[in-house]
Fold:
Amino acid sequence: MVDVLGGRLLVTCDGAAVEAEAALQNKVVALYFAAGRCAPSRDFTPLLCDFYTELVDEAQPPAPFEVVFVSADGSEEEMLDFMHELHGAWLALPFHDPFRLELKKRYNITAIPRLVIVKQSGEVITDKGRKQIREHGLSCFRNWVEVADIFQNFSG
Structure:
């Protein structure tokens, strides 16, 4: 994913800017296409938040995993409200970054929410991340990391 988002800035839910390369290097990346006004997005986001927390915030060592929110909200204010209300401590592509539309096209996003799991190169591991998390919980991460072509020291 570093190959795709290289040179871009991502933002945290408190508005801090983070360099994509530094944040995503050597990690499995989940591109989360969603919107606060979308009921299925609001339904799935807390589950994704718990998944992320267990893998990254609570695991020792933290799993090599990062979520990048790609907003389909109607305004920056809606995006930030959604992030503050339901999101985990993950990253987002800034609302005004036109690359949001390019990612939507590149990954053929026709409906939301959609969780696309990608390798460092941007190649898709699965575009059914949401379904896999719902059905298999944390165990689906092991499958993703096995095909992600990243250096790993993760045993969760």
